[in-house]
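Model: You mentioned two targets. I'll fold them one after the other.
Researcher: Yes, keep them separate.
Model: Target one:
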Amino acid sequence: MKTTPIIACSIFRPALEALGDSIPSHPVYFLDSRFHFTPERLYNEVVRITQELKVKQVFLLYGECSAGFNLPIPGINILRVNRKDCLEFLLGPEQTKSFARQRCFVMLPEWVIRWEELFYHWFGFSPDLLKTYMQEIYSSIIIVDDHSTSLPDATLKDIAQATGLDCQRYPVDITLFRDAILPILTELE
């Protein structure tokens, strides 16, 4: 019997690596977090991986950020954690909603490191439009810091300058993430 592979968003690489031996081991295939914006490409990558591995079941460790993520793949059982988006894995649903009510733009560590790519390429903002848009829509930027990735103060200052918004670190541990995925991983054993 083949081990069920995990197809995971690259956002979760540091958290999965930090959990290490504390969770059951499964082969992990990381896909770029930018697939959040192109669910059809995520779907095609999941189909490709399942066909290459010749498996009938995968654990898809991606938030349900887009309706396209929920498309069935014929003949493949896709296991999911019931989380609206990647933020809920690390913050939990209540804290995620609280930040939304406060009009906070929340950034996970990978997005902080790739902030210029995120804003200028993925979102397509010019520098002037970025600042205008962010100040009209958001009150501040929350930087989720799970201590898995180096997030230099200089990078946070660059983001604050580019958006015109205050950047605040929000420290978390990976307990909520572990608790979200452990039931499925344990069930697969």
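Model: Target two:
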Amino acid sequence: MAYQRLRALTILWFLFMTWLSHQDGAHTLKTSSSLANGLAKRLGFLQVNLDVLNLQLRKLAHVAVFFVLTVLFCLTLYVGRKPAWPLLFLIVWCYADERSKRWIAGRHFSWVDVGLNLLGVAAGGSVALLLCRM
């Protein structure tokens, strides 16, 4: 039962992050700007430049969504006693997700973003490994 729930959650997260990732440039900017504005209001005492905060949030999002995907995927494989080789899909997806943006208005391919995706996978894999050893 736990395996099915984790698998469903992993699939839902993958679909959600892919939907977010493949919005056109205007919608992506609107989403990140509203997050930046909300965060800036809470952190107003820091006197943060909204444009800089917006860019940082957009970069952090790459790491965060791939981190969560990796933790969920690793836990799903672990609980289901499945082999680890499907984790290679995550490495391929780090590139493919970014590469597919060339067909989306206002989006572009970025090696930096591929690197941020890979950073999220590495961090998520490390956390999942610790959780599975507990």
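Researcher: Noted. Anything on target two?
Model: The CA atoms of residues 14 and 114 lie 16 Å apart.
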